[in-house]
Design goal:
heterotrimer; A alpha+beta (419); B alpha/beta (173); C alpha+beta (156); B: 173 residues; Beta Polymerase, domain 2; two-stranded parallel ribbon; 7 strands; C: 156 residues; alpha+beta; Alpha-Beta Plaits; 6 helices; 5 strands; binds iron/sulfur cluster
């Protein structure tokens, strides 16, 4: 039985009548706030400097994707599904194509090569997502140097992804039946030294987080989530693994070819923010090593890249799971024999982690709020880079978002081309 | 007694009393469906959580069938020594379409709170004994009787409602 | 002490190098975009048989086709709506449409109204005048986006 004290943090009354007794200040963060790019509304009840209870309201960025999927064909949905999340797009697509393959009954026709390329895409995504995250965490803790260092090094993996898939953030390599693009030998050879380089850099990042006192003191013993609390609030992914719940879908029920690779499950038992950070840092290293293994395997792996899938999917239902950078990602698909899904349910990992994260806040200082709330990795999209090529002169120019918007408005206003 | 039920009982190390479970299906190796009805769901989940020690709820899915609603509780049986999970789809079948009602399983999982409210929001399924059965995601001005995930509402209709709300707000400002 | 020395070294090095950003244009030339970067699609005209598969599979509905038979017809595209997903390339039976052949077309948005629509291919009798006229018609209406905006403002 769940005790009364463990009520969910999603219950907030609009008029504030649910404030806990003893709280004398109430802080409202969001839906629009410079700290938090995500549109969520946090309500934090304080007594003095200490947090009594933190609550949340969600629903400010509702896009109706599940309904939209019912109106599109299975083929078109392959490109809608990665848009569920800005940064873990590959894993959403991976689960989707596995659900479709299972429903169509062509699971065994997928070649080893296609599976390896899918895995590479997923792991590369995990690396860049984690690197982005601990950069921002350092920024929230007031350690901006680390932000710049980790984001600078993140460009290496972004270049790899761009080279292999043609896109920087949204690789969109997968299709039901296989993958869209191959990783030819030249590209693999180009990629290997970059990955080895990155391994050294991430090891250095880990050293900074472990040894540098100014950041370590900010994270250690802050926002502890004990194992018992974790069991009750059902966090998943790195949030759970930092509190001693050693479950990773890649190990727990292996999909693709994860059982053929040699890798370790990372978990810590401390449950504080430093543990979540270290879980992600270690995982980044594991993923980088996995990438190397995948590239080695690709040299000998054979097979067709794309098996044929009919547009009509026979009736059936399947529950697919996968490990996104943020945790366990869950899809449930129902087909009815036509070329459109009957129902498709998506549960992205962050929703399951919010309760546990807000539980961490109890009794903490308000000054630790940014670090603790960042710890579950609220995801936001980082497609901030725009490259403009003048097609007559071939001149190139890279500008930021603001300047781009400025130029675009001007161009629209005076009805003239961009340059 | 079916083989699947036996296998699941071996994994969970418990025995179900026969009348609680309607059917057990095996989806693939180590992945099961348990079917039950609304009046027995609470007791069955009590056995699963208290005797078998299941504590993780992945999500709750509501599905509209031709004559009834189904509610899926996707739970995981976790074996910590082997780092292994056994996904189980706990399916509450036969929920009446005119007055959709099913017991809330909030007593066993904190997470059921918002997942169940999401189903209430989109399908209008009422979870009995839930202390805070309110909207989770849809906007405050959304009409109460419109449950957008039901098949009777098309894309165009929903678009009209949404635009109507937007217009109403912009006029009030 | 050692730390401080290292830090001083870094500072001096960075001082000498100057800001990184001033080299941006130069660095861009050194690191060009990959050969097969995703862009808006182009059609190889001789191969296309106007079967309409690309129009049917496009998730954003940005392609439009008009044809009399397999030699007379055209495909036009609402350029800003394309998300470079490459479905059209994957499912084309004749391998006629490509999103990765011409990095120079990776113009993200073009706010020039004339360019909101572009002709991907125009064959036979649709070549030249007819295709131009069609685009002109679309542009005169103000493009898809403006059309929808008008509809919203008028409250219909
Ligand atoms: S480009 Fe390919 S898919 Fe599109 S109409 Fe031509 S032949 Fe058909
Ligand atoms: S790349 Fe994708 S969005 Fe663009 S035209 Fe092709 S199918 Fe449509």
């Amino acid at each position: 039985m769940v005790e009364e004290t463990f009520r969910s943090r999603f219950r907030t009354e609009v008029d504030g009548s649910d404030a806990p007794p003893g709280a004398d200040y109430h802080m409202f963060i969001g839906p629009q706030h410079p700290w938090c790019e995500e549109p969520a509304h946090f309500i934090i009840h304080l007594k003095g400097e200490r947090v009594v209870e933190a609550n949340i309201r969600i629903g400010f960025n509702f896009r109706g994707m599940e309904k939209a999927m019912e109106a599109r064909t299975w083929r078109q949905n392959t490109m809608l599904i990665p848009r569920a999340c800005g940064i873990c797009s590959a894993v959403h697509q991976n689960i989707y194509v596995r659900v479709v393959e299972r429903l169509a009954g062509i699971e065994d026709q997928i070649s080893e090569r296609a599976r390896l390329i899918r895995m590479f895409s997923c792991e590369a995504e995990r690396i860049h997502s984690h690197m982005l995250w601990y950069g921002i965490l350092a920024h929230d803790a007031g350690f901006d140097t680390m932000l710049h260092i980790s984001w600078r090094d993140r460009e290496i993996i972004m270049d790899i992804v761009e080279d292999l898939s043609g896109n920087r953030v949204n690789p969109a390599l997968m299709l039901p039946g296989g993958v869209k693009r191959d990783i030819p030998k030249e590209k693999a050879d180009r990629t290997r030294p970059k990955i080895n380089d990155l391994i050294k850099k991430v090891e250095y990042h880990k050293k900074v987080f472990v040894e540098e006192a100014s950041i370590r003191n900010r994270l250690e013993d802050v926002g502890v989530l004990t194992k018992d609390d974790a069991k009750k609030t059902t966090p998943n992914g790195p949030t759970g693994r930092a509190s001693g719940l050693p479950f990773d879908v890649r190990k727990a029920s292996p999909y693709e070819l994860y059982d053929q690779l040699d890798w370790n499950l990372v978990y810590y038992t401390e449950g504080d923010i430093l543990a979540t950070t270290l879980v992600r840092l270690d995982e980044t290293l594991e993923s980088l090593r996995m990438c190397n293994q995948i590239l080695d395997k690709l040299e000998t792996a054979e097979g067709e890249l794309l098996a044929r899938v009919r547009p009509r999917i026979p009736a059936g239902e399947y529950f697919g799971r996968g490990e996104a950078p943020r945790g366990e990602d869950v899809h449930y698909g129902i087909a009815n024999g036509t070329d459109k899904p009957e129902r498709y349910k998506i549960r992205a990992p962050s929703l399951g982690n919010i309760d546990a994260t807000l539980k961490r806040m109890d009794g903490e200082y308000i000054a630790d709020m940014p670090v603790v709330l960042r710890s579950y990795d609220p995801c936001f999209s980082c497609t901030n880079r725009v490259m403009i090529v003048n097609d007559t002169t071939g001149e190139k120019l890279i500008i930021g978002q603001d300047e781009f918007a400025h130029k675009a408005i001007k161009a629209k206003k005076y009805n003239r081309p961009f340059f | 007694m079916s083989n699947e039920l036996k296998e699941l009982e071996d994994i969970l190390k418990i025995t179900f009393s026969k009348d609680l479970v309607k059917e057990v299906k095996k989806v693939e190796e180590g992945h099961f469906d348990i079917l039950t009805t609304p009046d027995k769901a609470y007791d069955l989940m009590k056995i699963l959580t208290e005797e078998a020690g299941i504590y993780h709820l992945s999500t709750v899915t509501a599905v509209e069938r031709e004559k009834e609603f189904n509610v899926f509780y996707h739970i995981q049986h976790r074996i910590e020594e082997e780092f292994r999970e056994v996904p189980i789809n706990f399916i509450v079948t036969g929920i009446n379409k005119d007055k959709p009602k099913t017991p809330s399983l909030l007593d066993f999982f904190v997470a059921a709170d918002y997942y169940e409210r999401e189903c209430y929001d989109f399908f209008g399924i009422y979870f009995e004994n839930h202390p805070f059965m309110q909207r989770l995601i849809l906007p405050e001005k959304w009409p109460d009787d419109v449950r957008p995930m039901l098949k009777e509402y098309g894309w165009e209709e929903l678009k009209e409602i949404t635009l109507g709300i937007a217009k109403q707000i912009s006029e009030n400002d | 002490m050692k730390k401080i020395l290292v830090m001083t070294g870094e500072v001096l090095k960075n001082q000498a190098k100057g800001p990184v950003t001033k080299h941006v244009l130069k660095r861009l030339e050194e690191n060009p975009a990959p050969e097969d970067i995703r862009t808006i699609p182009i059609i190889i005209e001789d191969r296309c048989i106007l079967c309409g598969t690309c129009v049917a599979v496009c998730p954003t509905h940005c392609l439009e086709m008009e044809k009399d038979d397999k030699d007379n017809g055209m495909i036009i595209m609402h350029t800003p709506q394309c998300m470079w997903c490459g479905h059209c390339q994957t499912y084309c039976p004749k391998d006629a449409i490509h999103i990765d052949r011409n990095p120079a077309t990776s113009v993200l948005f073009s706010y020039n109204v004339r360019q909101d629509y572009s002709i991907l291919t125009a064959k036979g009798s649709f070549k030249g005048e007819k295709a131009d006229k069609k685009i002109e018609e679309k542009v005169a209406k103000g493009g898809k986006k403006l059309e929808e905006l008008e509809k919203f403002r008028s409250g219909k």
